[in-house]
Write a structure and sequence with these properties.
alpha/beta, 14 strands
């Protein structure tokens, strides 16, 4: 008998949670389905609006800059003689240089977290689409970095060709136009060919000229920054990522200096008035001679292209300097550790106080422990609520820094190390209460931003807050091991009691999923299935074994809230993000007046 019951329970929980979602649907229909059909359309903030595509605008600007400057250097008469030596490589090098300047101007803006928090706050009464774009700041930062890498490769290849052709023109012994141009003005500074010796090799140009040497340094810094940012290295060797990423200082210093030597040159405007290259290029032997049978052509004179990189990056560098100064000042303020709690699965909770600290739900901070490292700052989501008189983080072992910190604080009667806190900074979870319906999905320790949300709900219920725009929250927590549920099960238990006591038991529907299970665990749960509390968590909500059937979950939510804007929030792995993003698109109605799902993901 027990065996048969265990098999039924096994298939019910592993193959899907359809029964759970159906019961949730039925239990909430009575209260939620009878509301006004246009209730969600009257929300002042997260309305049904199309998503903007700033990435498309950014790509269009890159394309515009590249094509425009390619045509300038490929068609302009000012660079007619330069093209006689370098060919089309000149246009490729200069067009990619403009795109490099443009993207170098943008690369720092997505990581100015105080700026983003300010913009997010200034958009508080505006469209949620703007704030959603701010949540993609790191993704945009990476896109810009990849674009810089692409244009760097184009720029390097083009200049390799340029150096070779400069050397070839200098070594030619005939009377071709490139050879004649290379011999002009070697001593008076009005030359065109920067290679003045016939014995120069490309390696010498790379290490003995300002553009060559700074180009090598910039390229090496860029390679180290990009390779150390790969997901596997960043997660396994965060310290390597952290230190190498600060080579951006070297990158920008080299970029500003790179073009000051002006090795790539064009004909000066004054020279163009006396020497039209279209008319004079065919008779170089007559340059500088007066005669009645041909147009007078003065000897052409050449000048360098002014260095412009500093103009592009000056404002972002100043802004970033102010950003870092503010963060340093704020991080130096005193932080008091009030409580340390060790949870199962080696998760450490640290409760702290700091004068003037103010937070919103779901925000995050950067922590630094000088006793471990003066330079390393690590981001952690706040698990406390704004209503509490302290702020807290939950730290799981994920590297040498976290392991050292946990070992230090886990010792009996340890001296509290000095902690430095920078933040808080805004994230997608701030917008949970701006949606009438919200789906919160946490994977493992990714539950932390939603712990802040659930705590805030508990406080709002306690003080009888009737102005909460959110009418329904679906919470999904997916864990590999049972010990993880102990982190916040007391919070969920308190919420259950508080919602029942306030008559709003249908406000929160939460689902717990255990992915690391075995047959004996399922059998044990089957034997005690009739009990009022779950054998895994001790909560009233039964734990499901396996992963959620997201198609069923989204279908149930869409059917229960047919004219709503549903915010889907995730703190978890990218693979799960792709799945949720896909179902948000699939289950959003083509009619903007019907249900719309908007995906939001934590990124820091």
């Amino acid at each position: 008998m027990h065996f048969r019951f265990a098999v039924v329970l096994f298939f019910r929980r592993v193959q899907g949670s359809f029964l759970n979602t159906q019961s949730t649907k039925n239990s909430t229909m009575g209260k939620l389905a009878v509301r006004s059909p246009t209730a969600s359309l009257n929300l002042p903030e997260c309305k049904k609006q199309p998503n903007s595509k700033p990435e498309a605008a950014w790509l269009a600007l890159n394309l515009y800059l590249f094509v425009t400057y390619f045509l300038i250097f490929d068609r302009s008469e000012q660079y007619y003689y330069t093209r006689q030596i370098l060919g089309s490589a000149l246009a490729w090098a200069r067009a990619s240089a403009k795109c490099l300047n443009f993207n170098s101007m943008l690369i720092l803006l997505p990581i100015c977290r105080n700026l983003l928090s300010f913009v997010r706050g200034s958009c508080r009464c505006g469209r949620c689409t703007i704030r959603r774009q701010l949540d993609h700041n790191l993704a945009f930062h990476k896109l810009v970095a990849y674009m810089i890498a692409i244009h760097t490769a184009i720029h390097i290849i083009a200049h390799f060709c340029n150096v070779e052709w400069y050397i070839d023109a200098q070594q030619e012994k005939d009377h071709s136009l490139p050879s004649i141009l290379s011999q002009l003005h070697k001593t008076d500074g009005l030359w065109l060919n920067p290679i003045h010796s016939k014995f120069t090799i490309p390696l010498a140009v790379a290490f003995t000229t300002i553009p060559g040497l700074t180009g090598v340094i910039i390229t090496l810094a860029l390679i180290l920054m990009i390779t150390s940012s790969m997901e596997q290295i960043r997660r396994s060797y965060f310290e390597v990522f952290w230190y190498t990423h600060h080579l951006f200082v070297v990158y920008f210093a080299g970029l500003v200096i790179h073009g000051i030597a002006g090795l790539v040159r064009g004909q000066t405007p004054e020279s163009l008035k006396k020497h039209d290259p279209e008319e004079c290029a065919h008779h170089p032997s007559r340059w500088g001679q007066n005669g009645s049978h041909h147009h007078y052509c003065a000897v052409p004179e050449f000048g360098s292209i002014p260095a412009e990189s500093w103009k592009w990056v000056l404002a972002p560098l100043i802004l970033y300097a102010f950003e870092r100064a503010l963060r340093i000042w704020r991080s130096c303020q005193k932080v008091v550790i009030t409580k340390v709690i060790m949870h199962p699965s080696r998760v450490l909770e640290i409760q702290m106080c700091k004068a003037g600290f103010s937070m919103e739900i779901g925000q995050y901070v950067f922590l630094n422990c000088p006793a471990i490292s003066y330079l390393e700052w690590h981001p952690f989501t706040l698990t406390s609520a704004p209503e509490e008189d302290f702020f807290s983080v939950h730290i799981r072992v994920a590297g040498d820094w976290t392991e050292t910190l946990i070992d230090t604080l886990q010792q009996p009667n340890p001296p509290m190390p000095r902690m430095m806190v920078d933040g808080p900074f805004g994230t997608a979870s701030e917008d949970v209460f701006r949606y009438e319906v919200a789906m919160l999905v946490g994977a493992g320790i990714g539950v932390t931003p939603f712990a802040s949300v659930l705590k805030s709900i508990w406080y709002k219920f306690q003080r009888g807050d009737q102005e909460l725009q959110t009418r329904k929250i679906y919470f999904y927590w997916i864990c590999r091991e049972t010990g993880s549920f102990a982190w916040f099960k007391h919070l969920l238990s308190s919420l259950e009691q508080e919602m029942e006591g306030s008559g709003r038991a249908d406000f929160l529907s939460y689902h717990l999923y255990l992915t690391g299970w075995n047959r004996s665990m399922v059998g044990h749960a089957a034997l005690h299935f009739q009990k009022s509390t779950d054998m895994v968590t001790g909560l009233r909500q039964k734990t499901s074994f396996g992963r959620p059937m997201w198609n069923n979950e989204f279908s149930a939510v869409a059917a229960t809230h047919p004219r709503s804007v549903v915010g889907v929030f995730l703190c978890g792995p990218e693979q799960l993000a792709k799945t949720l993003r896909k179902y948000c698109s699939q289950h959003s109605s083509l009619d903007p007046r019907n249900v719309q799902f908007y995906f939001n993901k934590e990124n820091f």
